[in-house]
Model the fold of this input.
Amino acid sequence: MNTIRDFSFLCIIAFSALSASCSSCQSQKPVSEPYQQVSPDFDADSAFSYIEKQVSFGPRVPMTPAHADCGDYLAAKLSSFGAKVIEQKATVKHYNGKNIEIRNIIGSFQGEKEKRLLLFAHWDSRPFADQENDPVKRNRPILGADDGASGVGVLLEVARQLQHNTPECGVDILFFDLEDWGQAEFDDHYIPGNWWCMGSQHWAKAPHTPDYKAKFGILLDMVGAPDATFMRESESMRYAANIVEKVWRTASKMGFGQLFIDKKTGSIYDDHIPVNQIRNIPCIDIINLKSKSSSGFASHWHTLDDTMQNINKSTLKSVGQTVLEVIFLEK
Ligand code: AHN
Ligand code: ZN
Done:
């Protein structure tokens, strides 16, 4: 590998070129970053405000007014960015025997393009904080600033950028519903079934356009924490190792290697699984995993601490800029 040598070589070239052309203008700083970004600048303040807005509705538990209002906000926002919005509504049977009305929200850019990329996140939030020890606390719904709203907030900012900047590929941004109503850990009776990711399971069986295809997909789940670490998740590696490679390499080139770590982790059942297995679209999951915690997730996961306190602009920037760059590099 000549990477380090090539890197310093490029730095020297860049620096000498700059000093030569800029000998009289003292105000300009020398640029030592050799990587030439092709994507527009991702605005982390903007992404942060979209997360705040979702959280301001309260917990977005399906079949509640806060959920309905937030859904309206997300659809209106995508539409305001010039996306063609389709809402997929359905009723699914849940483990508690109840029928739950779900709403997957899709915003498409350049719908006529055959080559498409799929970006997705879940927009619902968990009805109970079952990682809390206190029985009173664990029955309360979580705010899901990180678990849910962060991925959606980053993708809304991506959508805002796509309003004024046009990549080669068409882009579909998909907000899945009912990801996070898997059976509570405090439930005594385990009911066999696939109760996580029900919105994506539904969509994968019946996509919003018949026979929907995309070159590949990227799922963002819990991408806001200050100390986030993104590792190469096993199912992403199984179905889409080349996409993991592309995304992690891009992140590292852009200087985000601290977060996008070169390490493989175990499997997560997340929205990328139905999309991989049922739709055969190679998909990866960018998800904050913690190898030292017993759950494998961050300490605020499925607790009442999943609030704006755990959202960090620098993490949002790393993820958002990486995703934008991958989109704009794709031909
Ligand atoms: C399971 O815990 C089985 N899957 C994690 C998917 C998830 C929940 N992502 C966010 N919340
Ligand atoms: Zn969750």
Summary: The helical segments are 3-21, 44-56, 65-80, 145-164, 198-205, 234-253, 272-279, 313-329. The two ends are 26 Å apart (CA to CA). The domain at 37-329 is CATH 3.40.630.10 (Aminopeptidase).
